[in-house]
């Protein structure tokens, strides 16, 4: 006869109860137990079963909790003090260029983070460790080798004060700070080219005023515009970065609840020790098609190479608005830096702006920080088709014209201005799986031989993304 697990757990108590009640089932005799003895026996049985129930509940409370969902694999201690969340991100791209001489179409493993570890130790210590294995693109998409995307510790003293130390995104640009899995286009725009990406440092950050105002103030090694700092701080200087962002109607349920606006900025006194590490401090600006269209003169020797030579500051006013299926993100960025070329000192300021609109055709909500979750996920043979969204982006970049006038940049190789327009279609089969395709048209001023305009860039990118 088969005995279930639950029955086996109850067996000792049942046997004890049977032993106490057995005399009650015996044939009646002249010496029947009195009422007090019967009551005592019943209370002992009830207490025995109560103790067993308490013991079962205590074991359930002390057992670790393991769960798997669309958010990944989660392991938590019973008391919630210790937790480990395991996620992943994979982005496989196809890039095609229309009428682009010298530019190759390609398949690309854009990002591959197979093990993203996030967790907590007690109430005030948390961590994030995300290795990057996409050797074809690197974290910044510039051909670097496998590296670390994020690796930091959080000391959470309170919601108003958290100290984050390690490799992380520098808190300046709005589009740059958005998760790599959530950007509406396969690649970020011009404003992200003018602000730093990931760097090694420490940030004090938090939210105050009933969660309507967030702040961040950090000290970093100093990454160049649009890229990571992948080496030790070569110039022995540090960069200060700060950001304020307000969501004044976050606690309301009216029309303006999804409005947020703020300002990010950074300051550094940057120097280039030699032309061999010029790329550690100076920018190489890329188009939406990921082609370099502006860089300073670099001849390989100190007398013909532009070097960083002091003050470098950035400002990035920014805003977004999200309401149901509609989203809007806007940003302006300026990067101004002192440089030197063969003893001639100068300071140049480059600027960019972008506006990106999103609309979910199937009606699901869109936001800055959370993935679109289809109401009816795609299923083979089923009725669900997932969610569809369309994104449109207008943006422009303007280099400082004095950089060409003073021959710090070559008009035959670098463009003075770039203007781009793009449209993207995203198909969210599930909240974890996305197919995306976008088209971008870019027009340049300058950047070709004899100072002529660089040919228009027409790029068609597509992406298969798995994220959880």
How would you characterize this protein structure?
- Helices cover 13% and strands 47% of the residues.
- The protein has helices at residues 5-25, 35-62, 174-177, 190-193, 402-405, and strands at residues 65-69, 72-76, 82-97, 106-121, 125-132, 147-158, 161-169, 198-208, 213-220, 239-246, 259-271, 284-286, 292-295, 307-323, 326-341, 344-360, 387-398, 415-428, 433-446, 457-467.
- The strands form two sheets. Strands 3-4-5-6-7-8-9-10-11-14-15-16-17-18-19-20 form a 16-stranded antiparallel barrel. It has a two-stranded antiparallel sheet with strand order 12-13.
- The radius of gyration is 31 Å and the shape is elongated.
- Mean pLDDT is 88; it is low at 1-8, 14-31 and 137-144.
Entry keywords:
468 residues, mainly beta, Porin, 2 domains, two-stranded antiparallel sheet, elongated, disordered N terminus
Rounded to the nearest angstrom, the radius of gyration is 31 Å
What structural category characterises the helix and strand content? mainly beta
- For the record, give the distance between the C-alpha atoms at the N and C termini, rounded to a whole number: 45 Å
Sketch the topology as an H/E string, one letter per element: HHEEEEEEEHHEEEEEEEEEEHEEE
Number of distinct helices: 5
* Strand tally: 20
Q: Quaternary arrangement of the chains shown? A: single chain
List the domain count as a whole number.
2
CATH fold label of the largest domain: Porin
- Give the class-level CATH name of the largest domain: Mainly Beta
Low-confidence stretches: 1-8, 14-31, 137-144
Adjacency order of strands in the biggest sheet: 3-4-5-6-7-8-9-10-11-14-15-16-17-18-19-20
Question: Largest sheet, if any?
Answer: 16 strands, antiparallel, barrel
**What is the overall pLDDT average?**
88
* Silhouette: elongated
Tell me what the CATH architecture of the largest domain is. Answer: Beta Barrel
> Helix coverage percent of residues?
10-25%
Any idea what the CATH superfamily of the largest domain is called? Answer: Porin
